Structures are given as C-alpha cells and as structure tokens.
Amino acid sequence: MSEQKCSxxxxxxxxxxxxxxxxxxxxxxxxxxxxxxxxxxxxxxLTAPARGVYxxxxxxxxxxxxxxxxxxxxxxxxxxxxxxxxxxxGHEHYLQFGAAGEVTLYGPxxxxxxxxxxxxxxxxAHCGRGPFPPTSMRFASxxxxxxxxxxxxxxxxxxxxxxxxxxMASNERAALELCDEPPGTAQILEADAVIQGLNGLRPDQVSxxxxxxxxxxxxxxxxxxxxxxxxxxxxxxxLDGVDxxxxxxxxxxxxxxxxxxxxxxxxxxxxxxx
Length: 274
Known about the structure:
alpha+beta
C-alpha cells in the first residue's frame, strides 16, 4: 500500500473509536471511495456490520457510540429523550418492564435504514417530533451548552464510550415527552411513578419548557401529577404564557375527572387527585 493510502487508512482508524461507526455516505464525503472501502473490508482493516456502514474490527457497538455517529457525523436532529433518558439517569425501576432498554429518540429527522440492521443490545425507537417544536440546531456544530439548555437538552457522556458525548433531553423535558405518549391507564400510572421520583427539577427550566411545549395533554398531565406528589419545586414554576387549552380531555376512559386540569385519570390513583 502506498504511503498516502496508508496514511489515509490510519487517519480513518483513529477517527473510529471502539464503539463508533461511520456511514458510507459520510465516508464518501471525506474522500473514501466505495472501491477503497471495499478493499479495506477485504483486507480486514474495516468491517461492515450492516450494508452502508463501517467500523473497525475491534469495535464493540454501543447505543451511545451509535448516537454520537448519528448526531456528530450524520448531522441528524435526533436526541435521546423520554423513557430512555429517564432510565439512563436512574429512574428505570419506575418504567414498564423492558422499556428501559429501548432507546427513545425525538426529532424531525429519520433514522437511516441501516440502524435497525445493526447487532446491538438496545432497540431504537423514533418517537417523532414529540411535544416540542422541531429545532433547526445541528448538534454537530451548533450544540453549545447555552443553546441546548434553551431547548431542554444536555450533552451527556456515557461511561462506555469516549467522544463528544450524546445530546439527551433533560429530566424536565424527558418527563413532558413521557407525558405525551398515547394515553391510557398503564401510561398514566407509569408517568405518575416517574414524576413522583423527580424531586430535583429546576423550576426555571420547567417554566421555560411548559411555554414551549405544544401538547396540551402533556402539560396538563405533568402538572396534575406534580401537584399530586406535592413537589416543592412546583411552587416556583411560573405558568405565565403557558397555554393549557380548553375543554375536557379523556386520558383514561371511565376514569375520574381532575377538577383543575379537566383530564380524566385512572381510579387506581389515590385520593390526592380529588
């Protein structure tokens, strides 16, 4: 192999970490032709865990490494949120069995077709845009801490990976995303258990996100459950400019109507909802 080609290969191997990968689309943009990538694979310098994506032979695929590639290399406006963000921060015992292992993603962009073909312990579920307006921010180049905070997002580093980190929903945003899931008794009881454990939410961030949230159902349910558990941070949450809509919303058929927020909640919840 020529010195130039060897240098190009070494540069690529340095770029790819032990839990990282790169798509053929991104590699072509960096000057790696399809024929060159095929030669790397034949020679054992790269592997192709799925068609259209490459990694180094020693790689141990991990959800965080995949997310780093999607956010940093592919430039996708997708963040980890809802259930998985809450489970990752230690609230998995409140979630339904098996839910903590499903990486829930939110954002306006679609997952590449090669993602579900990867052999990886976690399953990735794209939950759509969620209860917030889509952001135009690209996490690869524009995701400074201040801009992320404005959208209820944070840059987190998983212990299993090294790299730029993964953009995830804060607990405040993730709770609202959870409350936006299709309603029903099981979903409400799950959200209730999670919100019960969220003692340290930041009132200013909750106020900001309630103003940005577009889901009336999510806002009403979140506030009703927070009041139910008498969280001290709730007293410092401002509802100025928060649109809670009008009329009744049936979230649990046959349930009890919450007199303040006008949503039906399961009978299984205790009398504090009265």
